[in-house]
Design a protein that fits this description.
Elements lengths: L3 H4 L3 H12 L14 H10 L5 E5 L14 H10 L4 E5 L2 H4 L3 H10 L4 E4 L15 E5 L7 H10 L3 E6 L2 H9 L4 E5 L11 H6 L8 E5 L5 H9 L4 E4 L1 H4 L3 H9 L3 H6 L1
Parallel strand pairs: 1-2, 1-8, 2-3, 3-4, 4-5, 5-6, 6-7, 7-8
């Protein structure tokens, strides 16, 4: 049965959520030795670059077309372009992802890898090892704290995604120390960078903060960084074209480069 919050979701998002609820978990409980995402962000900052989480996203309900390149080669090119970490879609029905893609990519690179899926129950954490796992606050209305704790018990670094200040408070109450603010409204599917700018001031300094969705240009990247983003999660703008070149464009989008343009 759909609750009031779900009733306001866009039909495409409700379809994703329905499919996620039916997706099985792993056969055995996983135990992960994670590569530290906060440490990777700090190292990128120290090198004078922008921390970019580049997303291996074959397709999505909000983009046209599909990338059929070997995802491992895409991942390697992103790292070569300066990606601090990678986000890998494992949702199969709407994004063309798979846990096998993530497994292969994580074996091929040495940066932290985020499993981007729609995890709604504990058993689904056991599908594959990754360094970070996405937990969307709106999709886990009742037991977010339990799911964050279950992820940590397995060694994952949970990235809790929010879209509003109310969801941020729920994430912080659940113990989240890595938070992503999604600029995309899951009710209308439109994107507004002001979403991040309105939520970011309320995020504690000791939380690693990501800006997600709608970062299409170097100017967008600088805007999100100026608003407080520790890192930027970028999918379409990197996947659309030469992924190495696109990743480098965002990884070097510092205020200093703006002065040179």
């Amino acid at each position: 049965m759909m609750n009031a919050s779900e009733d306001s979701l866009a039909p495409e998002v409700r379809s994703i959520l329905d499919a996620a609820r039916d997706r099985p978990g792993g056969d055995e409980r996983v135990s992960v030795t994670a590569r530290s995402f906060p440490d990777a962000v700090a190292a990128t900052e120290a090198a004078g670059r922008v921390p970019v989480v580049a997303e291996v996203k074959p397709t999505s309900p909000t983009t046209d077309g599909e990338r059929t390149d070997d995802p491992v080669e895409l991942a390697r090119e992103m790292v070569a372009g300066g990606a601090t970490a990678l986000s890998v879609l494992t949702e199969p029905d709407h994004f063309g992802g798979s846990v096998e893609n993530l497994r292969r990519i994580r074996e091929a690179v040495d940066v932290p890898v985020l499993r981007k899926d729609f995890v709604v129950k504990e058993s689904q954490l056991d599908a594959v090892e990754s360094d970070l796992v996405l937990l969307i606050a709106r999709f886990v209305p009742d037991d977010l704290s339990d799911l964050v704790a279950a992820a940590r018990e397995r060694g994952f670094q949970p990235l809790v995604e929010v879209h509003s200040r109310a969801e941020l408070e729920r994430a912080l109450d659940a113990g989240a120390d890595i938070v992503g603010v999604n600029n995309r409204d899951l009710g209308k599917l439109d994107v507004d960078l002001e979403t991040f700018e309105s939520v970011a001031p309320h995020v504690p300094d000791d939380v690693t903060l990501l800006a997600e969705s709608g970062i299409l240009t170097a100017e967008d990247a600088r805007r999100m960084r100026a608003a407080g983003a520790d890192a930027l999660l970028i999918g379409t703008a990197i996947m659309d074209g030469d992924v190495r070149e696109n990743t480098e464009r965002f990884a070097t989008a510092t205020p200093e480069t703006e002065k040179l343009e």
